[in-house]
Amino acid sequence: MKKLFYSFFVVIAAIVLASCNGSTKVDVMAKLANAQCPMVVDETITLVKVGYDNGEFVYYYHIDDELLSVLSIMERDFCEEQLKEETKNGLNPGNDAEVAELFDVLIDADASLVYSYCDYNDVEHYRVVFTPEEMAEL
Protein backbone atom coordinates (compact mmCIF):
# COMPACT_ATOMS: atom_id res chain seq x y z
CA MET A 1 0.00 0.00 0.00
CA LYS A 2 2.80 2.42 0.91
CA LYS A 3 4.55 1.71 -2.41
CA LEU A 4 1.28 2.28 -4.29
CA PHE A 5 0.81 5.64 -2.55
CA TYR A 6 4.41 6.62 -3.34
CA SER A 7 3.97 5.64 -7.01
CA PHE A 8 0.77 7.67 -7.19
CA PHE A 9 2.58 10.63 -5.56
CA VAL A 10 5.42 10.40 -8.11
CA VAL A 11 2.96 10.30 -11.04
CA ILE A 12 1.04 13.33 -9.73
CA ALA A 13 4.30 15.20 -9.11
CA ALA A 14 5.47 14.40 -12.65
CA ILE A 15 2.19 15.67 -14.12
CA VAL A 16 2.37 18.88 -12.09
CA LEU A 17 6.03 19.45 -12.99
CA ALA A 18 5.40 18.79 -16.68
CA SER A 19 2.79 21.55 -16.74
CA CYS A 20 5.17 24.07 -15.13
CA ASN A 21 8.31 25.79 -16.33
CA GLY A 22 11.29 27.67 -14.92
CA SER A 23 11.13 28.77 -11.31
CA THR A 24 7.56 27.44 -10.98
CA LYS A 25 8.97 23.90 -11.22
CA VAL A 26 11.48 24.74 -8.51
CA ASP A 27 8.70 26.10 -6.29
CA VAL A 28 6.69 22.89 -6.80
CA MET A 29 9.72 20.70 -6.05
CA ALA A 30 10.42 22.67 -2.86
CA LYS A 31 6.80 22.29 -1.73
CA LEU A 32 6.81 18.56 -2.47
CA ALA A 33 10.08 18.06 -0.59
CA ASN A 34 8.94 20.27 2.28
CA ALA A 35 5.83 18.13 2.74
CA GLN A 36 8.11 15.26 3.85
CA CYS A 37 9.83 17.32 6.56
CA PRO A 38 11.03 16.97 9.22
CA MET A 39 13.14 13.99 8.19
CA VAL A 40 15.80 12.45 10.44
CA VAL A 41 18.99 11.91 8.43
CA ASP A 42 20.90 10.33 11.30
CA GLU A 43 21.19 10.75 15.06
CA THR A 44 22.88 14.17 14.70
CA ILE A 45 21.21 15.77 11.66
CA THR A 46 17.56 16.44 10.79
CA LEU A 47 16.22 17.96 7.59
CA VAL A 48 13.70 20.49 8.93
CA LYS A 49 12.50 22.23 5.77
CA VAL A 50 13.15 22.93 2.11
CA GLY A 51 12.75 26.32 0.53
CA TYR A 52 13.23 28.25 -2.68
CA ASP A 53 14.02 31.94 -2.55
CA ASN A 54 16.24 34.35 -4.46
CA GLY A 55 17.47 31.72 -6.88
CA GLU A 56 18.45 29.24 -4.16
CA PHE A 57 16.89 25.83 -3.53
CA VAL A 58 17.79 25.32 0.13
CA TYR A 59 17.78 22.25 2.34
CA TYR A 60 17.73 23.44 5.97
CA TYR A 61 19.27 21.02 8.44
CA HIS A 62 19.47 21.11 12.22
CA ILE A 63 22.72 19.80 13.68
CA ASP A 64 22.75 18.64 17.28
CA ASP A 65 24.89 20.45 19.83
CA GLU A 66 27.36 17.59 20.23
CA LEU A 67 28.24 17.52 16.54
CA LEU A 68 28.42 21.32 16.45
CA SER A 69 30.92 21.32 19.31
CA VAL A 70 33.10 18.79 17.47
CA LEU A 71 32.90 20.81 14.24
CA SER A 72 33.62 24.08 16.04
CA ILE A 73 37.13 22.85 16.83
CA MET A 74 37.92 22.91 13.10
CA GLU A 75 38.18 25.98 10.90
CA ARG A 76 34.84 26.96 9.34
CA ASP A 77 36.14 27.01 5.75
CA PHE A 78 37.66 23.55 6.20
CA CYS A 79 34.36 22.18 7.54
CA GLU A 80 32.40 23.69 4.66
CA GLU A 81 34.87 22.23 2.14
CA GLN A 82 34.59 18.80 3.78
CA LEU A 83 30.79 19.01 3.89
CA LYS A 84 30.72 20.03 0.22
CA GLU A 85 32.99 17.16 -0.80
CA GLU A 86 30.93 14.62 1.17
CA THR A 87 27.70 16.02 -0.26
CA LYS A 88 29.12 15.93 -3.78
CA ASN A 89 30.09 12.29 -3.30
CA GLY A 90 26.53 11.51 -2.21
CA LEU A 91 24.97 13.24 -5.22
CA ASN A 92 25.06 11.02 -8.26
CA PRO A 93 22.78 12.29 -11.02
CA GLY A 94 24.08 9.57 -13.34
CA ASN A 95 22.65 6.84 -11.11
CA ASP A 96 19.78 8.65 -9.37
CA ALA A 97 16.86 9.84 -11.50
CA GLU A 98 15.50 12.12 -8.74
CA VAL A 99 18.83 13.91 -8.33
CA ALA A 100 19.17 14.21 -12.12
CA GLU A 101 15.67 15.71 -12.36
CA LEU A 102 16.40 18.15 -9.52
CA PHE A 103 19.66 19.23 -11.19
CA ASP A 104 17.91 19.67 -14.56
CA VAL A 105 15.18 21.83 -13.05
CA LEU A 106 17.63 23.93 -11.03
CA ILE A 107 19.99 24.41 -13.97
CA ASP A 108 17.07 25.43 -16.22
CA ALA A 109 15.96 27.96 -13.58
CA ASP A 110 19.56 29.16 -13.06
CA ALA A 111 19.16 28.31 -9.36
CA SER A 112 21.79 27.13 -6.89
CA LEU A 113 21.46 24.10 -4.63
CA VAL A 114 22.21 25.01 -1.01
CA TYR A 115 22.65 22.95 2.15
CA SER A 116 22.25 25.11 5.26
CA TYR A 117 23.40 23.58 8.55
CA CYS A 118 21.90 25.33 11.58
CA ASP A 119 21.68 24.86 15.31
CA TYR A 120 18.32 24.37 17.03
CA ASN A 121 17.89 28.17 17.23
CA ASP A 122 18.10 28.36 13.41
CA VAL A 123 21.48 30.08 13.51
CA GLU A 124 23.36 29.02 10.39
CA HIS A 125 26.83 27.62 11.08
CA TYR A 126 27.73 26.05 7.74
CA ARG A 127 26.52 26.66 4.18
CA VAL A 128 27.34 24.50 1.18
CA VAL A 129 26.44 25.88 -2.25
CA PHE A 130 26.40 24.19 -5.65
CA THR A 131 26.01 26.65 -8.51
CA PRO A 132 24.20 25.64 -11.71
CA GLU A 133 27.62 25.36 -13.38
CA GLU A 134 28.87 22.98 -10.67
CA MET A 135 25.74 20.84 -10.92
CA ALA A 136 26.19 20.61 -14.70
CA GLU A 137 29.69 19.18 -14.12
CA LEU A 138 28.52 16.45 -11.73
Give an overview in words.
With 138 residues, the chain is an alpha+beta fold. The chain has 6 helices and 5 strands, in the order H-H-E-E-E-H-H-H-E-E-H. The protein has helices spanning 2-18, 23-34, 65-72, 76-90, 97-108, 132-137; strands at residues 39-40, 45-53, 56-63, 112-118, 124-130. Strands 1-2-3-4-5 form a 5-stranded mixed β-sheet.
Structural class: alpha+beta
Percentage of β-strand residues:
15-25%
Order of helices and strands: HHEEEHHHEEH
Amino-to-carboxy terminus distance: 35 Å
Strand order of the largest sheet: 1-2-3-4-5
By DSSP (H or I, 4+ residues per run), the number of helices equals: 6
Give the low-confidence spans: 1-19
Helix content, binned percent: 40-55%
Write down the Rg.
Answer: 16 Å
Oligomer: single chain
Broad shape: globular
Overall pLDDT level: 84
How many β-strand stretches? 5
The major β-sheet equals:
5 strands, mixed
Reconstruct the topology from this structure.
Layout: H1 2-18, H2 23-34, E1 39-40, E2 45-53, E3 56-63, H3 65-72, H4 76-90, H5 97-108, E4 112-118, E5 124-130, H6 132-137
Parallel strand pairs: 3-4
Antiparallel strand pairs: 1-2, 2-3, 4-5
Helix pairs in contact: 1-2, 2-5
Any descriptors?
single chain; 138 residues; 6 helices; 5 strands; globular; disordered N terminus
In short:
By secondary structure, the chain is α+β, with helices and mostly antiparallel strands. Helices cover 51% and strands 24% of the residues.
